[in-house]
């Protein structure tokens, strides 16, 4: 049996960027032909795309993890790594994207609407792209950045012109089946309808859609009876129709009190999209009242008794019977007139354009704060990105990082705030001891590939030492073989 899922949490992980390549061109008579390491490929992004053929979030219920491919590593001979393809995820029309903090990120309405849910990581630069006047043949490359990881909540809100609301067993599903080709489940017990049913109604040459929202009860706006799940689907409806059971035998209930109870729940409900940019506030939507089951004699008398009180509110009233097919044609054309009038009052839709927010040139791109334990924490998108791109096993890469931080002004800001030699400085996930006497931001004295003369005083094992150790191990194995 098909299932209707209208709220899921997905774990989106974009692809990581590929690492850059550190390579030197070599051929006969040209032992050092210059750096030729290619850049790593960018990671793939996760993009949500509205597809009219998708009507539920059921696929995400069973497969909540969405992972995009990563970029490939760069290679020698200036060959860049392949970029990871963007992963397009199909979602139904009316999907709202909410982040872990409850903020609405996107309102996906209209076929083809796109939203980048998670951005792929940038590929690392190869040593060919890092060559400069100071570093003519860099012995290092930058690492690729990790892709963005986010937990997102997808909420589906039914997109329909008319929303039918009412108490359980009021006849909403029967009405949808009578005026459209939809075949919802119909039974003589409450809460037969557990998911919204959509029907397409023809009014002459015109068509509009009707949504049968599951039954509401007092307290639905606080979640009673799964009311929040049901109320979510009326946010997109242009016209709200109260379907009233005039033949109910429950004590204390009559059509007017039922309408008042439903209006109280609508007024108390706080929608996710406050002031929907397309349809306006929920309280301002046009209303209509359908008095159902007038084929019952007592129900017919009740409808005639309360009709004047309801019309005094300025709402059109229709007396119908879905079983006897009474009053359906005037209802259909009356609803179409309300839908067309409401559509005409709305401002013309404006095409959505991408919003570009450039960063001012003089804006400070980092901040330095004391950590309360004698150290400092550097925050900022650029320093944190540079830390993630650095291979700390390579002295030359560490020296290049120090030069970048010095040019950005991190060294000067640490001195201004009273940083002492040897104090801890944390940037991103890396914590290190600060040595202000290490000259950063100055011309680099050429040395072996993968080394930096400014870091000779450190305890880090340099590239030349690793090469010497490998030679010693190889020589010892040769001596043992002899």
TrEMBL record:
Bias category Basic and acidic residues: which stretches? 451-467
Protein name from the UniProt record: GTPase Obg
Locate the region Disordered.
Answer: 432-482
User: Cross-referenced HAMAP family, in alphabetical order?
Assistant: GTPase_Obg
Q: Quaternary form?
A: Monomer.
Q: Which organism is it from?
A: Mycolicibacterium fallax
Note one Pfam family from the annotation.
GTP1_OBG
Instruction: From the Swiss-Prot or TrEMBL record, state where the protein is found.
Output: Cytoplasm
Q: Which GO terms describe its cellular component?
A: cytoplasm
Enzyme Commission number(s) from the entry: 3.6.5.-
